[in-house]
Specification:
Blueprint: E1 14-15, E2 18-19, H1 26-31, E3 38-47, E4 50-62, E5 65-76, E6 84-89, H2 96-109, E7 113-116, H3 130-144, H4 152-173, E8 180-186, H5 188-198, E9 204-210, H6 217-228, H7 236-240, H8 250-259, E10 272-277, E11 299-304, H9 324-338, E12 345-352, E13 356-364, E14 372-383, E15 394-398, E16 406-412, E17 417-429, E18 432-437, E19 441-445
Parallel strand pairs: 6-7, 6-8, 8-9, 9-10, 10-11
Antiparallel strand pairs: 1-2, 3-4, 4-5, 5-7, 12-13, 13-16, 14-15, 14-17, 17-18, 17-19
Helix pairs in contact: 2-9, 4-5
Length: about 450
């Protein structure tokens, strides 16, 4: 078992209309000894696609409930164990889809991949699941002051315990030391990914948080009301529990400061690939802009066009192809972390005139890499307001950059309504394609505001 250092995070950060008090202590919860932690190998299978190990793990005891997990390890054919693994945080149980994803990510990354299931353990507390369960634990914290109640705390601790288990497994099975992990998760598991990185654990080499476009929560909620005309109905469990809008009590502020990754942003220095759906019903269309500039370290964003919270491109007919953008970009990001190869640097600049917006995208390909830009495009959507969750995004290719490292695109400002757009570079490397995006911009005037 590794030793864990002490991390002190200042949480007296001023945001708009409030100043957070000291945070409930996530680090203290994660570091608390718990002798229920254990794991064992349940099965081991090999076929032409690769090798699959299935582990059973007990991560902790939370509120007198033992948290149990399936931890599955995928090693694609011809892939050797490396010092870095991919750890995908998810719910449910292993199934044919996770088998396909695990082996494909292992093939793309050229290293083993682990899926941590049952995050969170559920149903609990009277049959509650997912956001309803998280909201219930937040309410119980507000009622009791017991800082172990917020469900994100045991969710994060489960990830830390999974890293412990995987390191022990690698020593026994592969006779190697796995020292680093690329951690990924979607939605509340993406929330967990951000918070795990905030611990400052040196084993976390990089993160891939997906469809959790809500950092800087106080401003995000205010912006939802302004841009969507109200809170997203996908937040209904938190609204019904009286958590949104945020109660103006010291304990409630302490709760939200403890679980908002933005509070810990100075600790989020590891490389980050943020994956978002352009039509995600949970968030404001341009929610990323409320925190992107304040994230330190290397960072990239991938907007998946015409995709909702599941990242499925609905305009693509092929069921496998609907996830191609996400899977290949995440896989190549993983490979670069495993082999410590720099990724292409992408930068952009937006300028606005009364009748036209300009997007300039520039890139720098590291020396010694085989990456090249195969295409550049701008994705554009129309809507009467700033709410583009039901809009259809259309691609507009940009040409003339073949001998350059910069591309310029112009987007007319509509006479009525709004227009949203983001840029995209299509990259090729070692016969594989992947994509990086720019931030989202919205121009025009909402119809109801005229």
């Amino acid at each position: 078992m590794r030793s864990r250092g002490v991390l002190v995070v200042a949480c007296t950060v001023g945001w708009a209309w409030l100043i957070w008090p000291a945070c409930a202590d996530l680090q203290k919860y994660v570091n608390a000894p718990d002798d229920t932690f254990r794991w064992r190998v349940v099965s081991h299978s090999v076929n032409e696609a690769g090798t699959v190990y299935t582990l059973h793990m007990v991560s902790q005891k939370w509120q007198e409930i033992s948290w149990e997990h399936t931890l599955t390890i995928y090693q694609a054919a011809q892939v050797r164990p490396q010092a870095t693994m991919f750890l995908w945080v998810t719910g449910g149980k292993p199934n044919p889809v996770t088998l396909m994803l695990g082996l494909e990510l292992s093939r793309l990354g050229q290293a083993p991949v682990a899926f941590l299931h049952d995050i969170p353990n559920q149903p609990l507390l009277g049959g509650k699941r997912e956001d309803a369960l998280i909201a219930e634990t937040f309410v119980r914290y507000l009622q009791t002051g017991d800082e172990s109640w917020p469900l994100l705390f045991p969710m994060v601790k489960s990830v830390v315990r999974a890293m412990d288990a995987l390191q022990e497994f690698a020593r026994r099975e592969w006779k190697i030391e796995v020292g680093h992990f690329v951690i990924a998760g979607a939605s509340k598991r993406g929330w967990t990914t951000w918070l795990t990185a905030s611990l400052g654990d040196p084993r976390v080499r990089a993160i891939v948080p997906m469809v959790i476009d809500v950092l800087n929560m106080p401003e995000q909620l205010e912006w939802q009301v302004k841009s969507l005309g109200g809170y997203s109905q996908m937040l209904r469990d938190y609204i019904d529990a009286g958590l949104v809008p945020m109660p103006q009590t010291e304990r409630a502020k302490k709760l939200w400061s403890a679980v908002d990754p933005y509070v810990y942003r100075q600790r989020l220095t590891v490389p980050k690939l943020i994956v978002l759906g352009s039509n995600d019903p949970y968030w404001s269309t341009d929610a990323l802009n409320l925190y992107w500039d304040h994230l330190p370290g290397e960072k990239w964003v991938l907007y998946v066009p015409n995709a909702g919270h599941d990242l499925r491109e609905r305009t693509v007919v092929d069921p496998v192809g609907q996830y191609r953008r996400t899977l290949q970009t995440v896989g190549l990001f993983f490979r670069h972390q495993v082999y410590k190869v720099p990724l292409v640097e992408v930068a952009w600049q937006h300028t606005h005139q009364p009748t036209e917006a300009t997007l300039i995208i520039s890139w720098k390909i590291p020396k010694g890499t085989q990456t090249h830009v195969a295409a550049a495009r701008v994705w554009v959507a129309e809507a009467p307001t700033r709410d583009f969750r039901q809009a259809t995004w259309k691609a507009h290719d940009v040409t003339g950059f073949e001998n350059s490292t910069t591309v310029r695109a112009r987007v007319p400002v509509p006479e009525t309504g709004c227009r949203a757009f983001f840029g995209e570079l299509e990259l090729q490397e070692s016969g594989l394609t992947y994509w990086f995006s720019t931030q989202m911009q919205i121009v025009g005037t909402p119809v109801h505001a005229q």
